[in-house]
Design a protein that fits this description.
Rossmann fold; Universal_stress_UspA; UspA; Rossmann-like_a/b/a_fold
Length: 139
């Protein structure tokens, strides 16, 4: 039985589909939405920008708040409470590092801009290959 579900979420439509799927497929499970901040870009701009903030933790939380707010809205339509969490760094590594604390991961098939996908690679593919728990990839 699946009782704890991790849903990595960025600001993409596919990530929203993944959360919808998790809420519908696992209605009795505790669902945690994880947003990763400071992902690499071609010039490392986002990660460097975070490092220069006066209050690093506040900056990370601030950048995750929009995604978390949207996740809460989606959960509310399902009359479900969810937890939210934030991590910093490379998305695939951050997700894989957290996955062992859950029974499964439900992830969107792709997200981010085309340029970010080329540079970072397909996060869902990396998670699927290296996760210590089962992964469902949602389109």
């Amino acid at each position: 039985m699946i009782s704890r579900v991790l849903v990595p979420m960025d600001d993409s439509e596919m990530a929203e589909h993944a959360l919808e799927y998790a809420l519908e497929a696992h209605p009795d499970a505790d669902i945690t939405v994880l947003h990763i901040v400071g992902e690499p870009s071609a010039m490392m701009g986002k990660a460097v920008g975070l490092a220069l903030e006066d209050d690093f933790e506040e900056a990370v939380e601030g950048r995750a708040s929009q995604v978390h707010d949207r996740a809460q809205e989606i959960a509310h339509t399902h009359e479900k409470e969810i937890a939210t969490d934030v991590a910093w760094g490379q998305p695939a590594k951050a997700i894989i590092n957290r996955a062992a604390d859950f029974d499964t991961v439900v992830i969107g098939s792709h997200g981010g801009s085309p340029a970010e996908r080329l540079f970072v690679g397909n996060v869902a593919q990396k998670v699927f290959r290296h996760s210590p728990v089962p992964v469902t990839v949602v389109r």
